[in-house]
Amino acid sequence: MTEAGTQRLDKWLWCARFFKSRGLANKMLGAGRLRLSGKVVTKAHQLVREGDVLTFPQGPHIRVVKVLFLAERRGPAPEAQMLYEDLAPIGTSGPTEEAPPKPSTAARREPGTGRPTKRERRQTDQFRSGGQ
Question: Is the entire prediction scored with pTM above 0.90?
Answer without folding.
Answer: no
